[in-house]
Design a protein that fits this description.
This protein has 221 residues and is α/β, with parallel strands linked by helices. The chain has one domain. 24% of the residues lie in helices and 14% in strands. It is built from 6 helices and 6 strands, in the order αββαββαβαβαα. The longest helix is centred in the last third of the chain and has 16 residues.
Length: 221
């Protein structure tokens, strides 16, 4: 795998809200992970509650706290998988149903290749700051079978072509699409003007608009 090209633009407020502290993404991180500190929150009133653990590969310029907050905001949005009170997501530092990991391109591409070999997070340290690929990867099905959503840090920084400069939307898509796989949802083809969340939106056919939400037409309660 070739090293990705440097990102030439300047970091902005949307980047920092998504946890990035620099756009210098290393090709290969340290291979160990820091678990984001989970804030204390009241128990949600929902029929299904999914525990979410968020981890950052050591060696990335990513704030675990900010990345974790972005992840939870995206998953808990009224247009997300929990829309209408279907389910709720709660961040945890312990056992989890959903494990969101942001990793360097090398690590993201090599995780979960063996369905029977779980991801090794041994030695991960709980961290507030996070200082110490992603779903297009063929290994993704095995990641999903183990409850992992692996985000490529370079893709997180650059965004996705159909989203143009809407990198926040691209990041929300990566999370909601990945969690869809963890919930057992397969990829689908784009058949309408607005892409289903389970469409692979890295490339979209003409007439198909990007959409980062499972229930994009839901209304806030």
């Amino acid at each position: 795998m070739p090293s990705p090209a440097p990102i030439e633009r300047s970091i902005d407020s949307d980047d920092t809200a998504a946890g990035l502290t620099s756009l210098a993404v290393p090709y290969r991180g340290q291979g160990t992970f820091s678990i984001a500190t989970a804030p204390i929150a009241p128990a949600p009133d929902a029929p299904i509650v999914r525990q979410v653990q968020v981890s950052v590969e050591d060696g990335l310029d990513v704030s675990a706290r900010a990345f974790g907050a972005f992840v939870m905001d995206a998953l808990s949005d009224f247009r997300g998988w929990g829309s209408g009170g279907r389910m709720a997501f709660v961040q945890t530092e312990g056992a989890a149903d959903v494990r969101v990991v942001i990793a360097s391109p090398y690590t993201a591409a090599t995780m979960c290749k063996n369905r029977d070999a779980p991801i090794d997070l041994d030695g991960a340290q709980s961290s507030d700051s996070g200082s110490p690929g992603a779903s297009a990867n063929p290994a993704d099905a095995t990641c999903a079978s183990q409850g992992y959503l692996v985000v490529d840090a370079y893709e997180w920084a650059t965004g996705l072509h159909p989203y143009a400069d809407d990198r926040t939307g691209a990041r929300q898509y990566l999370l909601n699409h990945g969690v869809g796989h963890l919930l057992g949802k397969p990829n689908v083809a784009c058949t309408g003007a607005l892409a289903n969340i389970m469409v692979n939106q890295r490339k979209l056919p003409a007439g198909c608009a990007p959409n980062p939400w499972p229930f994009p037409r839901a209304e806030a309660s």
